[in-house]
Amino acid sequence: xxxxxxxxxxxxxxxxxxxxxxxxxxxxxxxxxxxxxxxxxxxxxxxxxxxxxxxxxxxxxxxxxxxxxxxxxxxxxxxxxxxxxxxxxxxxxxxxxxxxxxxxxxxxxxxxxxxxxxxxxxxxxxxxxxxxxxxxxx
Length: 138
Fold this sequence. Notes:
Elements: H1 2-6, H2 18-24, E1 28-32, E2 35-40, H3 42-49, E3 53-59, H4 63-71, E4 76-85, E5 88-95, H5 102-111, E6 116-122, H6 126-134
Antiparallel strand pairs: 1-2, 3-5, 3-6, 4-5
Helix pairs in contact: 3-6
């Protein structure tokens, strides 16, 4: 109903449920303690405030070996094993700000003889953007 109304009218939604706001609204204004902290499209705001880039990598490789290999790639800040079983593993990789490590990750994985099953950037959420904006005061 809100989306339908929004096609012909300006609709103001005030909510702390940021996941719902992100899926519902074309533009967001983040207010904190009476101050406007940011205004933009949800994806634009999240991308602008993202501190690191995140990539999900899946390969036909043992989990711990994949984590160690990805962590050694220049520009990688952190690697988390998300799932690993039967010789396949899926990891989330955080790169240093401004670094695009996707090509290096792909080269490293395939250079070790492992099949690269997926390599996809992960978008930051509106909630992550909000937490970045308000800082350590949370």
